[in-house]
Amino acid sequence: MADRLARARRTGILAVLRAPSPELALEAAEAIIRGGVAGIEVTFSTPDAPAVIRELIARHGDAAYIGAGTVTTPEQATLSAEAGAEFLVSPGTLPDLTRAMLDTDRVVMTGAMTPTEVMSALGLGVDVVKIFPASLGGPAYLGALRGPFPDAPLMPTGGVSPDNLAAWFAAGAVAVGAGGDLANGASIAASDWADIEQRAARFAAALDAARG
Question: Out of 30, 55, 130, 197, which one is annotated catalytic?
């Protein structure tokens, strides 16, 4: 598992990208990457997400860590893998969906919030348990989960900002998912790429500081 997660650990931040069109998604991803965040989770709430994934991989290759998010059906898992996604993320953990995601041999991250849900995800064999919405408990909750699950790779998503990034990693996060504070929906809709790039730069600086 450590080898499978090497890129996720090294990347540190996955930008949860939701956009109203493929074109805006590509522009937003480029701004995020320019700002210094190389992890892009293209969600299926973005139209034609597989095409966006395929294009980003064609442009950046191994220089960026590109995956699919909001995977809610086995078909989406297959389409993402065919597009070249390196990781697949689901907001929850449904057994049939999770097995379909695992069958792609991509890094699989599925959502959980309670200890029971964490146990279910780990029991199915996921690579990373996405703690979502992490804003409900904050870093202290992630740290509390470390008690019964000291070795579980946990990734908080929701409520992650440059100001609390260090606290999430100190609590034991393997990586973090960053949504609105990074891939800001209003800025994407307005094509304010300077703002998106600046947000990414703040996250990248916070990650560097957290790693010392």
Answer: 130
- pTM over the 0.85 mark: yes
C-beta separation of 33 from 60 below 8 A: yes
Q: Find the catalytic residue in 30, 41, 86, 197.
A: 41
* Contact call for residues 6 and 172 (beta carbons, < 8 A): no
Give yes or no: 23 in active site: no
- Token readout for 106 is 């991509």
Q: Is 75 a catalytic residue?
A: no
Residuewise pLDDT in 10s, the chain (212 residues): 457 899 999 999 999 999 999 999 999 999 999 999 999 999 999 999 999 999 999 999 999 999 999 999 999 999 999 999 999 999 999 999 999 999 999 999 999 999 999 999 999 999 999 999 999 999 999 999 999 999 999 999 999 999 999 999 999 999 999 999 999 999 999 999 999 999 999 999 999 999 98
Q: Is 206 exposed, middle or buried (0-12, 13-18, 19+ CB in 10 A)?
A: buried
Instruction: Tell me the pairing of strands 13-17 and 87-90.
Output: unpaired
